[in-house]
């Protein structure tokens, strides 16, 4: 297997707050890496320290002890990473509303602008490429106040891309977005990691999306350390259940656990999505669903001429699940 290239390495890193009343250590002795070409999702309960670690890795907050190395050699800057090494997208709303999108994305070029305040041809090209990469060229001349939350999020990601760093750190980039935009942002970040060989770390509460898109998970909440692994291994090991203590949700099946409060079994036969959603409707309404067996009410889900039908005991037929449920309830 090809060796991974570490773009960020944590060495015995402890993070938290040195307060007058004493130290509040959130994570201790972390020894992890962020690798080129990988999307890492950083998950854990509220208040566990995700934002604090992101800020520490971004050089916005001092580590309590230990070191972070960026790229090949040790970190050269005592204050944190250099601006051409790491870009960061935090949760703050954009305050400079009078600015337009292209101007804000241009801010990503500041590490390369020398003493001048004008963008070179190369800078302008990078800004245009960043806008294209996140598919917001059409918004380039819009004022920031004209944008939706999702569009603003895309603009902040474009700014980070224009900064052209091998590492991007993002704190809850999908907060306040609708499902389509959440999926789009996660897919975009995964694509960027692969295509541009970047190491991308996202602190997120999006359990479903993270499990489906992350190359690696950092999971906080078991002591002051992080459990790491690919999503599927962590789901099967039960460590997510241990950390989040899900109530009424079965992570292994990805389903809400329904209570079979009607004490009534129904046998069900069908295929694909129609079978799964029929089962969901029955279980959500308190029935136990089983495979075909004698002396149970039986439902066949059949598709004919592009239309679904539900047939009870080979006699009574329904053309919606709602009407089927009404029959049983
Ligand atoms: N400036 C600060 N000074 C002291 N303690 C702080 C400061 N900021 C955060 N904390 C504490 O550090 C802990 C971790 O906070 P942090 O915001 O990093 O958690 P988080 O995992 O990002 O939470 P969430 O998922 O709710 O965003 C919390 O207990 C918080 O009260």
UniProtKB/TrEMBL annotation:
GO cellular component, as recorded: plasma membrane
Entries under Gene3D superfamilies matching the protein: P-loop containing nucleotide triphosphate hydrolases (3.40.50.300)
Compartment list: Cell membrane
Lineage, uppermost ranks: Bacteria, Pseudomonadati, Bacteroidota, Cytophagia, Cytophagales
The keyword Ribosomal protein is assigned to this record: no
Keywords, sorted A to Z: ATP-binding, Cell membrane, Ion transport, Iron, Iron transport, Membrane, Nucleotide-binding, Transport
GO terms of molecular function: ATP binding; ATP hydrolysis activity
Gene Ontology BP term (one): iron ion transport
Identification of the protein by name: Iron complex transport system ATP-binding protein
Pfam families registered for this protein in UniProt: ABC_tran (PF00005)
Location (main, coarse): membrane
Residues in coiled coil: none
UniProt membrane topology term: Peripheral membrane protein
InterPro entries associated with the record: AAA+_ATPase, ABC_transporter-like_ATP-bd, P-loop_NTPase, Siderophore_ABC-ATPase
Matches recorded under SUPFAM superfamilies: P-loop containing nucleoside triphosphate hydrolases (SSF52540)
Boundaries of every ABC transporter domain copy: 10-247
